[in-house]
Inverse folding.
């Protein structure tokens, strides 16, 4: 059994892939930007008014001005302003040549085609050309594209971007007791929640996934299923069969198929029997069968792997908050991730009865990390909170 940080270090040594594709902006949300993007234009591309008002010269100290034109947003000024002249201008409109400031219309009194300054303006109310970005400046570094990034790219004139092609993922559920939702349950049988849950966890990362079905606890069938998955997909996610029980055949099958186990067993709770292996350029995660374990291990290990594959470092959002209730645990030999509800700067542990208690996640929106050797966290203690 290795420590959590050692397992993450092993995952961090995975070589990024260099397969790219170009997608339209409307398809780019959540995709990994392949390389740094530089702006082809100044942003904004011209100096513009920050509000509705009257554009005048910066060096003109007159108190009254003749209105010589109206400049709407999207319009082009006709001529350069001379002393004593102004242009009625709308928010976002291009400043006329010679103009250096805008006086808000509330501070002007208009009469018979001219305006008089009635109040003191505190700023120039101008957004200068290139004040956001200059042509050639970095628009975005390689990253997972969020909604605001799509807007930023569009503002620089991009219609499409080059993104990293994510790995194809095969999902296999193991266990003779597993039935698909909708099927009748016999004695000792349970529904397969892990497959649907993993497909949902993969979706925001745009990884194409295939559920290859449930495989009973029989080595030959399991080996055939894993071999088929390794041929067709770049990452295989197995659930169940990775512990040390009489019917846990995953480690044996992987060894017989020529896979090299990079780690098997991590000092983390839930998820101690987690396995990570490689065969050629294909990778395998063996996740525990209990659904909370599967969910947590995906968050802790599979997500960093997928980001690493796409050339990105996985830096999960973690914030500090105070516990709203005392936490006590019996075993302290592993680092534990506990489901909590985060509200108003405080986190409250949800009712949680172990890694088979999937319904506990209904009321949770984050995990807290309890370090190895710590048995009690008092109410009010500061903890690291990791939303999911």
């Amino acid at each position: 059994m290795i420590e959590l940080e050692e397992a993450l270090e092993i995952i961090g040594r995975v070589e990024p892939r260099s397969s790219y594709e170009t997608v339209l902006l409307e398809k780019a949300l959540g995709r990994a930007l392949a390389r740094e993007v530089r702006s082809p234009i100044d942003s904004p591309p011209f100096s513009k008014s920050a509000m509705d008002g009257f554009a005048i010269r910066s060096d003109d100290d007159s108190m009254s001005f003749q209105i010589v034109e109206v400049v709407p947003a999207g319009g082009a000024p006709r001529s350069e302003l001379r002393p004593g002249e102004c242009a009625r201008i709308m928010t976002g409109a291009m400043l006329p040549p010679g103009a250096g400031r805008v006086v808000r219309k509330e501070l002007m009194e208009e009469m018979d085609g001219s305006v008089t300054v009635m109040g003191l303006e505190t700023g120039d109310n101008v957004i200068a050309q290139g004040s956001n970005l200059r042509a050639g400046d970095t628009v975005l570094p390689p990253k997972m594209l969020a909604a605001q990034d799509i807007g930023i790219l569009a503002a620089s004139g991009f219609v499409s971007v080059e993104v990293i092609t994510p790995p194809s993922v095969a999902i296999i559920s193991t266990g003779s007791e597993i039935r698909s939702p909708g099927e009748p349950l016999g004695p000792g049988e349970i529904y397969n929640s892990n497959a649907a849950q993993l497909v949902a966890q993969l979706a925001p990362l745009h990884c194409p996934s295939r559920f290859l079905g449930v495989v009973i606890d029989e080595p030959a069938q399991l080996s055939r299923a894993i071999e088929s998955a390794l041929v067709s997909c770049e990452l295989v996610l197995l659930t169940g069969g990775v512990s040390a029980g009489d019917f846990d055949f995953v480690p044996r099958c992987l060894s017989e198929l020529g896979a090299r186990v990079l780690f098997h067993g991590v000092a983390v709770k839930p998820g101690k029997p987690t396995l990570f292996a490689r065969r050629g350029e294909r990778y395998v995660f063996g996740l525990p069968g209990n659904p909370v374990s599967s969910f947590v291990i995906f968050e802790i290990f599979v997500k960093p792997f997928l980001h690493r594959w796409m050339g990105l470092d996985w830096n999960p959002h973690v914030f500090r908050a105070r516990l709203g209730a005392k936490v006590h645990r019996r075993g302290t030999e592993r680092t534990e991730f506990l489901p909590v509800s985060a509200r108003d700067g405080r986190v409250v542990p949800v009712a949680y009865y172990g890694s088979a208690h999937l319904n506990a996640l209904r009321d949770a929106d984050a995990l807290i990390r309890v370090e190895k050797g710590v048995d009690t966290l008092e109410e009010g203690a500061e903890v690291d909170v990791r939303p999911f």
